Amino acid sequence: MGSVGRSHRKGISLIELAERFPDEAAAEKWFESLYWPDGEMCCLRCGSVNAYRVKSGKPMPYRCRDCKRYFSLKTGSAMEASNLPLRKWAWAIYLSATSLKGVSAMKLHRDLKISYQAAWFMFHRIREGLAAEAAELDRFAGDIEVDEGYFGGRRENKPLAIRRTLSGRGPVDMAKVVAVKDRKTKRIKAVVVDSVDKATVHPLVESSRQKGAKVYTDEARVYEGLADRESVKHSVGEYVDGMAHVNGVESFWSMMKRGYHGTFHHVSWKHLQRYVYEFAGRHNIRDMDTIDQMAHIAAGMVGKRLLFRELTFNEEAEATA
Hints:
Blueprint: H1 14-20, H2 24-35, E1 51-53, E2 62-64, E3 70-71, H3 86-98, H4 105-112, H5 116-135, E4 144-151, H6 160-163, E5 175-182, E6 188-193, H7 198-206, E7 215-218, E8 229-232, H8 247-264, H9 272-284, H10 290-300, H11 308-312
Parallel strand pairs: 4-7, 7-8
Antiparallel strand pairs: 1-2, 2-3, 4-5, 5-6
Helix pairs in contact: 3-10, 4-5, 5-9, 5-10
């Protein structure tokens, strides 16, 4: 699943997707090829290769002779305990991989003819697969760009009762995200933070770059004191000064904010990091062939069990952006 040039990336049309997954058996075969690429079946619970297919398919399609337990292709992944067919999971993964501005749960509900609640839960599970790509990045290989983004409604558009509770100036009441982009690999990692201050941002920057790598920022005071830093002054209309610019990160913000405002309209602060991982993860695999993107997401869902109650617990008490 190595990266290739964007001009050579092979996409999949909806017609081709329907031909590739015409029925549940085709979807099962595809997931089997991901989990057992050499054709040797292993238990998705204990890892034993002493597993076999259950002829009746009940209570599950496979059984392990060592741990004596049944399992399915959803076992051990974010899909576990889902009653939705694997074919619909494959379609949803495709939509998530190919929709640059994201897909709303309402659209998935209509396209796959599943309940809105099932669609909402399904996409959060798929985000676990994209999070695996975006959350596990360590130190980047090259010079980096750093910039902060703010998400949430404008203060002047909030109800008067809420505006009266807000203190300070600027985006103090908005959700804050810091993004770092590696200029060498073009990969992004982005993190929701409680505060955009030096105590928060500087450790994030230093943990993201190799010793001696340059960091490019705008003129915000939070970046002052960083070693090997070059910056541009947006306040006076300067956006590029030689190699100094943050255009790569701002391109990422542009895409995410289009999705935030145009697709999702509002996002619970409780779940914002999941959406950030979604956009960063999709950005990082954008040069892969579509089928490889799908495989990458499905592989990232392994070991990421997610319960509905974990997503909805006390959600009504959460502020919304």
